[in-house]
Design goal:
Elements (H helix, E strand, L loop, with lengths): L9 E6 L6 H11 L4 E4 L2 E4 L2 E4 L9 H8 L4 H14 L3 E6 L2 H10 L7 E4 H4 L2 H14 L2 E3 L3 H4 L9 E7 L8 E8 L2 H5 L6 H14 L3 E12 L2 E11 L4 H20 L3 E12 L5
């Protein structure tokens, strides 16, 4: 039986100032150096999937973001170490804004010394870094190097969008393709905000009025959670429409529009047909 030893992990680092495109390029850098795991802002990532941790982007202040990213909290630190052992991590790329930061992360997690540091200036031009920095400063956008579906429930209400990336590496070489996520953390862009449950009710009622198969809304209940919202609706359907198809179509439309209009994650939507309306013939 082979015993896993964290001391044998090959540790690399990817360093650059905040907002210069590290998370945007992290997977590409990892792939080019045969690195299988990434530690970025409190997350342990493997092959486009979040394995463990919660993103520091959710922290209420920039100071708390840094503390979270370098694993100051003992509980978070232990959970990450357990995840590294469980995954049997063999190589990892640590992202940070300075040499000191990545060395601190490695130290706090009990990882071996960093064997190689890759700098953002090694993989991005001055113009690319200035463009990325301008977007960070003027629009408050941050990139997380995983697909949107991986973290949407954790960033409900943070105005999250997918980012598709395709880069050609030349004739005969496999192109780099990936999906990342763009968020706007509340501490840097919007401030603290909350969407009233009445907003979701109004959206549901508006969509129901536009639906030809629904005569009226009988009841709506909205429940809010940190991971998103849950909606329960009772409606009166118009006679002549297929119940199952009408309910399914309306439900999917409601989920899509709420997520698009409010950036909130929709955990569950239940729509029940409680009665049938028969139009009067003239």
């Amino acid at each position: 039986m082979i015993i896993y030893d964290m001391k044998k992990i090959k540790v690399y680092a990817f360093v650059g100032p905040s907002g210069t495109g590290k998370s945007y390029r992290a997977q590409m850098v990892a792939g080019e150096n045969d690195i299988h795991y990434i530690i970025d802002d409190g997350l342990l990532i493997n092959d486009n999937q979040v394995v463990a941790g919660t993103s520091a982007k959710k922290a209420p202040t920039k100071i708390e973001t840094v503390k979270h990213a370098i694993f100051i909290d003992e509980k978070e630190r232990k959970l990450m170490i357990e995840a590294i052992k469980k995954e049997k991590v063999d190589s990892v790329l640590i992202l940070g804004t300075s040499d000191g930061m990545v060395h601190k992360i490695a130290e706090n997690l009990g990882l071996p010394q960093i064997s190689k540091i890759i700098y953002i200036t090694d993989v991005a031009t001055k113009t690319e870094m200035e463009t990325a920095r301008n977007i960070r400063v003027t629009q408050g956008k941050h990139v997380i190097p995983v697909p949107t579906f991986e973290i949407k429930k954790d960033f409900s209400g943070y105005l999250l969008d997918p980012l598709q990336i395709f880069k050609s590496k030349g004739i005969g070489k496999t192109p780099y393709m990936s999906e990342k996520s763009i968020i706007r953390p509340t501490f840097s862009y919007l401030g603290k905000f909350k969407i009233s449950d009445s907003v979701f009710r109004q959206i549901a009622e508006y969509l129901a009025k536009k639906a030809e198969s629904i005569n009226k809304v009988i009841r709506i209940r909205v429940e809010s959670y940190p991971e998103g919202i849950s909606i329960y609706m009772e409606v009166e359907l118009v006679y002549g429409y297929n119940v199952k198809e009408s309910i399914s179509e309306f439900r999917h439309k409601l989920i899509s529009d709420i997520q698009r209009l409010t950036a909130m994650n929709v955990q569950k939507v239940v729509v029940c047909a409680k009665s049938i309306y028969i139009p009067q013939e003239n």
